[in-house]
Automatic annotation (TrEMBL):
Keywords: EGF-like domain
Superkingdom classification of source: Eukaryota
Annotated InterPro entries: MEGF10/SREC1/2-like
GO molecular function: scavenger receptor activity
Protein name according to UniProt: Uncharacterized protein
Length: 296
């Protein structure tokens, strides 16, 4: 018996034919094709029979098995159903369940449980980057969809904050308490030290009286009145003691003057009208009194 097998698309358009040309029938016929054409109907028709048995072309089949694969990303009898986006590109042809991976989900093969916070990718095995705000990222692509931490270009977050900036998408300004206005791009902490403050990197304690500079490590000049100076630059903030050019306090008092910004006059009875610029004590002695005494 000879027969022809035909595969048809929609509208009965035949796209594949196989014809048995052997006079000797086989117990099993295996037909393999590599095309990925969509098939909606298969027909098997007898084309030649032995007249001694019958005058009509009848085909008797014990079993027919047909196997096919949908195009990537589709499933179902007609291959018209799209695989869920959680399956990435492939799924089971029979039921649409993800067959190898879940993308952005963790419960293979159903793929309905979304990745936990901080996880993403195939079966949620990837960790969101620490440059993502709150370590949160898109569960499918891994991009920082809630912004960057310490970086300026969401959602890819490739460029670290410029000098003096920090925080979500670099939207914050480093504190003036930080040395050189430099701070950690992620936390805002003064990681290079404090200026006019102590307790780095928090820098939440102002310098004690008489101290200034990086982490309050400097002592105000003795030229400063009451040993007081600005905690950020060491300049005398209350005037000079024994010097006449506040706030720098570089020029000593002229002879006969002393005190705050050289505003006091040495006692009249100081020898040569000379006294210590800081205390007013007669440094060369004076008439009628012992050297070293202060006249009031």
């Amino acid at each position: 018996m000879k027969f022809i097998l035909q595969l048809s698309k929609k509208n009965d358009h035949i796209w594949y034919s196989y014809q048995n040309r052997s006079d000797t029938p086989l117990p099993t016929y295996t037909i393999i094709m590599s095309s990925k054409e969509q098939t909606e109907k298969m027909s098997i028709t007898a084309t030649e029979i032995d007249r001694q048995y019958n005058d009509k072309p009848i085909v008797t089949l014990c079993e027919v098995e047909a196997y096919g694969e949908c195009s990537e990303g589709y499933w179902g009898l007609l291959c018209t159903n799209k695989c869920a986006k959680e399956c990435s590109t492939n799924c089971h042809i029979e039921n649409g369940q993800c067959n190898t991976i879940c993308l952005g989900n963790s419960d293979l093969p159903v793929c309905q449980a979304e990745c936990a916070l901080g996880q993403w990718g195939i079966n949620c095995k990837e960790r969101c980057s620490n440059v993502c705000h709150k370590s949160s990222c898109n569960r499918i692509s891994g991009i920082c969809d809630q912004g960057c931490l310490g970086y300026s270009d969401p959602p890819t977050c490739r460029f670290i904050c410029s000098h003096g900036r920090w925080g979500i998408n670099c939207s914050q300004t480093c504190s003036h308490e930080c040395l050189n206005s430099s701070c950690n791009a992620s936390t805002g902490h003064c990681d290079k030290g404090c200026l006019g403050y102590s307790n780095p990197p928090l820098c939440n304690l102002t310098c004690s009286s008489g101290q200034w500079g990086v982490n309050c490590s400097q002592t105000c000049s003795e030229r400063c009145y009451n040993s007081s100076c600005y905690r950020t630059n060491g300049v005398c903030d209350q005037g000079c003691l024994g010097y006449n050019d506040p706030p720098q306090c570089n020029s000593t008092c002229f002879n006969g003057l002393w005190g705050l910004n050289c505003s006091q006059t040495c006692p009249e009875k100081c020898l040569n009208s000379s006294c210590l610029a800081t205390s007013g004590e007669c440094d060369q002695g004076f008439l009628g009194y012992s050297k070293g005494m202060i006249l009031v």
